[in-house]
Amino acid sequence: MTRGRFVTLAMAAGFAFLWLPILLLVGYAFSADRIPFQWGGFSLRWFAALAADDRVIEAASLSLRIATGAASLAVLLGGAAGWGLARYGRFRGRALFGALIGAPLVLPEVVTGLSLLLLFVALESVTGWPAGRGALTVLLAHATLGAAFVAVVVQARLTETDRSLEEAAMDLGATPFIAFRTITLPLIAPALAAGWLLAFTLSLDDVVIASFVSGPAGTTLPMALFAMLRLGLTPEVNALGAVVVIGVGSVLILAALLLRRSDSR
Amino acid sequence: MKGRLAVLLPVWAWLLVFVAAPAAILLAIALAEADSGVPPFRLAWSLTGFATLAEDRYYLDAVLTALRIAAMTATGCLLIAYPMAMGIARAAPGRRMLLLALLMLPFWTGFLLRVGAWIGLLRDQGWINGMLMALGITEAPLPLLYSEGAMLVGMVHSYLPFAVLPLFAALLRLDPTLGEAAADLGAGPATAFVTVTLPVTAPAAAAGFLLVFIPAAGEFVIPELMGPPEAQLVGRVLWQEFFQNHDWPVAAALALALLLLLLVPIRLFQRLEARP
Lengths: 265, 276
Description:
The structure holds 2 protein chains of 2 kinds. Chain A is built from 11 helices and no strands. By secondary structure, chain A is mainly alpha-helical. Chain A has a single domain (54-264), classed as Orthogonal Bundle (MetI-like fold). In chain A, α3 (54-87) packs parallel to α6 and α7 packs antiparallel against α8 (176-205). In chain B, 78% of the residues lie in helices and 1% in strands. Chain B has a two-stranded antiparallel sheet with strand order 1-2. Chain B is globular and about 70 Å long.
């Protein structure tokens, strides 16, 4: 067998390994059978059951709100951090600054979760804030995590953009703020958007940190899903999987089509 | 200068409160003494937490098991990632984008859902056992789930893209004429791979290995949902000490121990990343 054939076959096997469980999860969401991953004829009953499950719907809406807030905060913080690292040279404390902003990238989730919970407990006992734990503490934790990723993306983008455009604007009399708004911001906008999306996804996907820093009133979707999987699989998990995969897939296809259209103009 | 301060000051404040302070508090609580109050510790300068870790073989085993499982996961990921990265790198540009999208899309669909899918495939009434029994290969369901193998499959599946991406980036930079030269000089595909591709991509392979190894060493969710009860990895033990035994000092000491152990691979990874 030639090398090309072997590589193609092995690659196809790799993709099958990656995708087969996901496709089966989605496919069996349309099965009427009570036992997940058993075919009992076509049915949408598990989607109806999912829509009627208040716990899941509430958790999903809470998760979406936390992820939106955390990603937006992460873009502000991570954007400023990436800007500082790329543009301010060797400012005082730069090494410590870089280590602190990057720490959540490399820390194990259990360590981040535990240490943030201990912080919230200590803060509450000293200052009375935050009163109890829940959505707010999860949002703060996820913003810290997301900012680390945004900073990397923004710093990389700024290092490869041309500073002379900004300088030219300022030579022509633009204030630093106007130069930033009219020149730099449009240049780094794609990085900010990508960073926002990354922080949003990380927040929606996190169960470990959220389990540590949340309280009884703050059950996120991954926390609810984790509890469901611990008790045993139900076809509702399949239905949720189908909603997420089909939803994410169509958003991505739409985005690709829009990009292609704007490219061809 | 004023502008600089306005940009950096809020970030500094945030990082000191939400990154530096938690680390300091973690250390303080690792040195505290367990107590039956709320919260369940009394501040002290005590090494009881660390002494518990050193004395009880259970904790050392948990760390060693976690390191072994993380190394096996990273190795498994690299074995599958090599041909995938090679296939994607040599595809035509349009197709390459599609393959990369197929690689990253599972990452966007939620990792717990993928674990759920594997549970549905591997459990006793699962899809694989259903197929095996329908084909008459086995009469009773095989105990596939809640085994070390199931846990490894779940972890390799979760972390696979992290191993493919650095290899793919290195292979794109690889000069294709090197492989052709090797072939012209009579090297078979296997020889060309071992003598050309492997040495050139070794740093990227090491980066991919560490990118999987570092998070896998602290993994909690997959061992908990797919592993056997006796697979006490350090992430799982930390969780139990905290949530079930309410022994905060031991949990904090365990977190610091895990952190210290990971410092070497983390520094190694950062050095690999900083290479020109």
